[in-house]
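Project standup — Tuesday

K.O.: blocked on the structure for the chain from last sprint. Re-posting the sequence here as requested.
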Amino acid sequence: MYELGEVVAERRIEIVVPDGATSELVVRFGKPHPDPLPGGDWCCPFQIEGLGEGAVDAAFGVDSLQATLLAVQSVRLLLTEHAAQTAARLDWFGQPDWGLRVDPGLTSREVTTRHAYLAAAGIAAALLRTPALAERWRTPSALPNYSVGGLARHLANQIIQPAELLDAPPGHRAIEVLAHFTGSAWVTTSADDADNTNIRERGERAAAATTADRLAAEVEGVLAKLRHTVPAAPPHRIIDLGDWGLAVDDFLLTRLLELVVHVDDLAVSLDLPTPELPAEAIELTNDLLTRIAAWRHGPLAVVRALSRSERAPETVSAL
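H.V.: unblocked you, prediction finished:
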């Protein structure tokens, strides 16, 4: 999708496997350039040769420097994820984080949330392309009163809606992310309650107006745009949700939760193995679900559910 172009910086990182053999990863950064999309800012392409297929990726910022810093930060996160999944050790002169820790104007958690959201969105988009979806579009899903098509449409909304809201005028008042859930009636009501019924019915109507192939194509196009707009969104940007707003990274965290939960729902509905999601996506989702569960059931109930089966409550479900 991206071209590396003129290489302006390179770093070689040693890979040391348990038996002592070594090889190397080569990190290359292309020359930053203006984003060709209308309204775009700056793009900095990068490549990690020796990691996966070595595909060229890119980071985006409001100017060439922020795009470059975000590219360096993205490489560090990708290498951290790789290091956690392999027995090999990565080394660059013994320096922590391979000398790649920078401050691109976002906190580490904000960068991680955006990276996790885009990664989970990519996995959801791939699941929406599976041929089984078209075959089962009108069949019941694993969720009560939801067709497979309705569930797929609801999953797709977690990609389509953020793009629309990022294009919309910003909000003026942001609340804490937990308050977003404590202030939403659907969190604590039953599946048959009006709020949850309305959500399902909207999904079913939208599914009836499209097909699996059209939905997959729409999601792919929107996701390509989000790969530009999400990294470039200023951290102070407030997403207007009507009754209240959320800081952009808190909003993306809520969409990440939806993606993680509903990717599993849709895979089960299609009798497919649930795709493996990045560790950071699972960790962020579990952290948020734990906070919601503690609000609903009390922190002690969550502690007992996770540590004392003999005193565990019947449920500590967050949603």
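K.O.: great, moving the ticket to review. The two ends are 37 Å apart (CA to CA). The beta strands are 7-16, 22-30, 33-34, 42-49, 56-61, 89-91, 238-240, 245-247.
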